[in-house]
């Protein structure tokens, strides 16, 4: 029993480390989006450059379903292990090369085109990685412990984001601001090569999934996984239910609670990047164990209603949470202590609670660049609110790997579960930061053009996207998903 348990955790460890590194690779780009927008896109319009960067970031998500189809088919034909070995190397190579691309100033339009190409390769790789890792672990686990065992894979996306933020923070603190913005931002991308090599060595010694190996030895593997997955009406029904009843809602909850929260604090609240990273790191570290908790709980009480409950509480509370977050950086609510010109055109205001507002003033008195460094109490408050959102994420995301795996038979499992997961996350979730940022910008522009408030609290406009998508998913999931339909 001890040997079997040790073997199971070796499987989980080898799978999780590799998947975590792939998420790290994928999310470095998003974590550095504001800085990258100044390197790979034309200068002159900061908002347009940032939106272009988010669009490039989203492109990696959009192609994830194609990676799911391509690598899912390979996984159901030749095996889980060898397929996600390939995805690991593809992801690592693309990430390393992004760190090598010259800036827009050096090579012009070729720079953003190369970034886009490598982001597409990253998306293809990730489309094959997650389904392979989740299926591999699930097929090693006892059915009654599948939620708990696969929940470790669920931590890897958040762990990858945490590691990316830590590496960026350590790199930034080890050099001057000018050096980091000049060349230091490339180091997290280049460091990926070392991580990928270590993970490759670990994975090379893994054995094939026992369920797949058994099916292959008995000649029961699929000869055409794509046709069986999507050409069979019965199986296609489950693919669509997996997408519309859980995956797309999980996708927008995940990206709202982590990536949109980061973008909102930095871009809408104007909090300095260093503070944003600290807030996210603390909130994510505090929240990550709950993936395991809800995965374990799903083995006891069922998976469906935990996921549905996560969507419901998120939908009902997002606008309140983000309004509370926004108020922490609203200096109109704070008592001014001092105002001084720290250098020509650069103004600094200090408030009674310790908040420090800085901005660069233009010729007509407009604030060209503004930051609001929060007090310790306000930082702790933001950590709490992001942590609450991470709890929503863990409720929906913790049980989902086991839930999706159990919906489909072994012979077409890799293909069938990967597509709805990556459409839900890659398209519905991946587009969220760009769409939400656009909606906020649009609300602000409407008010500016009208010269009066037509859109109340425009900073909350971006939340309509995840609320509507998760709401649709919740209704479909509650009505049509059946806990007992899992295979």
TrEMBL record:
Location(s), subcellular: Cell membrane
Primary location group: membrane
Topology class, membrane: Multi-pass membrane protein
The Major facilitator superfamily (MFS) profile domain, residue ranges: 11-485
Name of a matching Pfam family: Sugar_tr
One GO MF term: transmembrane transporter activity
Positions of transmembrane segments: 7-29, 49-71, 83-104, 116-138, 150-171, 183-202, 238-259, 279-298, 305-322, 382-405, 426-443, 463-481
GO CC field: plasma membrane
Keywords: Cell membrane, Membrane, Transmembrane, Transmembrane helix, Transport
InterPro entries in alphabetical order: MFS_dom, MFS_sugar_transport-like, MFS_trans_sf, Sugar_transporter_CS
Name used for this protein in its record: Major facilitator transporter
Taxonomy of the source species: Bacteria, Pseudomonadati, Bacteroidota, Cytophagia, Cytophagales
